[in-house]
Amino acid sequence: MGGKHFKDDDAFIRTAVRDVKRLERLAGLTASSRLLDWGCGAGRLAVGVREHFPERRIADYHGVDVQPDLISWARENLTAPGFRFTCVDVANERYNPAGLPERTIAADPSSVDVFYAYSVFSHMNDDDTSAYLRLISEALSPDGKAFVTCFVEEGVPDWEENPEGYGPLEWKGRLHCTRFARSHFEALVSGAGMAVDRFVYGRETDGQSLYVLRPAS
Length: 217
Ligand SMILES: C[S@@+](CC[C@H](N)C(=O)[O-])C[C@H]1O[C@@H](n2cnc3c(N)ncnc32)[C@H](O)[C@@H]1O
Fold this sequence. Notes:
Blueprint: H1 9-27, E1 34-38, H2 44-52, E2 60-65, H3 68-78, E3 83-87, E4 112-117, H4 126-139, E5 140-153, E6 159-161, E7 178-181, H5 182-191, E8 194-200, E9 209-215
Parallel strand pairs: 1-2, 1-4, 2-3, 4-5, 5-7
Antiparallel strand pairs: 5-9, 6-7, 8-9
Bound molecules: S-adenosylmethionine.
């Protein structure tokens, strides 16, 4: 689901704990945080929260995804005090092509301290990306941070689907790989009312880059 790095159960848990530690370090995650895991899939990050925090929970872990089977699995296996999962029936050409056009991330304004979207903008069209960045910006609390990964490069078209010869895989099917020009993605971030707190090029799954975003002051 998240690429070759998650090919077995150990890697699934290891990457989850690694990301929870990175959220602590880079986005201020604590046991009191309200965390939104957008595009949570089967709830990988929830496993990391449970493994890492001494009381095996935080104030609020909220996993949101468009795939009902994954959310059902997560609800059955990972629901516990402090953990909840929501399925949103919104359109994504790869994961939920028959979904509704109205976009939501299932979060109230200023209600999210830490937002996490791993390998979600790597499968998203340009209009959705722009609109969801605005929704993320609205949902963040004043000191909130968003940790997101995506494919960005210099000197490429603003947005491209399945760029040929790019990255480690042969991209097949709608939105298998969506790549942004770095300047374009950062203009969308800024247009959404956020600023780049940190950028690390190319070290995430399949060569994605990491952004930590914050509300623009
Ligand atoms: C490559 S998977 C990554 C899963 C998870 N973040 C991880 O790292 O293990 C991308 C996920 O994003 C979800 N997704 C795509 N568009 C979405 C949207 N508009 N709202 C919520 N989830 C979405 C997909 O259903 C899929 O589970």
